[in-house]
Amino acid sequence: MSFTIAVSGKGGVGKTTIAGLLISSLISRNLKPVLAVDADPNTCLDTVLGVSIQKTIGGVREEAKEIAGKGMAGGITKQQLLELKIEESLVEMENFDLIAMGRPEGPGCYCYANNVLKTALSKMTTQYPYVVLDNEAGLENLSRRIIQHVNLFVMVTDPSQRGLETITRLHALAKEMGIHYDQLAVIVNRLRKNKQPEISEKLKETLNAEIIIGIPDDDELAEFAEEGKSLFQLSKQNPAFRKLDEYLSDFVK
Question: Among 68, 71, 103, 230, which lies 20 to 30 A Cα-Cα from 137?
Fold first, then answer.
């Protein structure tokens, strides 16, 4: 059974960077192959992993529909054709594979893309020891049960008062939605002077989190983001990587 890490939080707090660092840490520990899942319609996990997404779940459905409508499916069912197209959308690398949800089928409608991704992942995850799911801002994807079981739920925030309050509301919402996970880690990202906010310990108690992880604000990471560099090029001595890698060892073996 796969060990699944789901990364969530409000927008703009470095959620995708954290997901990329987690994937890099798993691979550096030889815990591979990793299935990276970009469940954010604004696909950007590919950039931090140094690859390029050519097809997404949201796009292959329309492609399969068009092929079937023109009678060019070659004797296979629409569902079989869709599954074939989903396999073609998988970016396969030496240590990880990446699949992305992409844009929905229609304006404001994510239902079909979510359902297709859910069906695809139920089959694919059995082939990978570790799965890292980068969610869109909020909890929409997790509430739709794209992944049925989350081993480690990572909630990312910045150190601002507003950010910490938002993470508390998101956690309460997760409980209301019945999102189940084995362990919770809260990451306070972009700490200045590498100092945890005073509210952190109270936050840990309020959320009943296993751990509060402080990740320092880092010029090298900011530079990588500006230049679109792969996080696999990041030095393993980078303070942010080392901090996250250190704490990850408590959760995965």
Answer: 230
Count CB atoms within 10 A of the CB of residue 16: 24
Q: What kind and span of H or E run contains 58?
A: helix 57-69
Helix (H, G, I), strand (E, B) or coil at 56: coil
Three-class DSSP labels, 162-191: HHHHHHHHHHHHHHHHCCCEEEEEEEEEEE
Q: How far is 34 from 60, CA to CA, in rounded Å? A: 23
**Amino acid at the residue 236:** K
Helix runs in 70-190, H state only: 78-89, 111-124, 140-143, 161-177
What tens digit of pLDDT does each residue of 60-72 get? 766 656 655 555 5
Distance between CA atoms of 147 and 5, rounded to whole angstroms? 10
CB 184 within 8 A of CB 155: yes
Report which of 41, 6, 2 is spatially closest to residue 177, judged by C-alpha positions. 6
pLDDT at 108: 47
Say how far apart CA 73 and CA 82 lie, in whole Å: 10
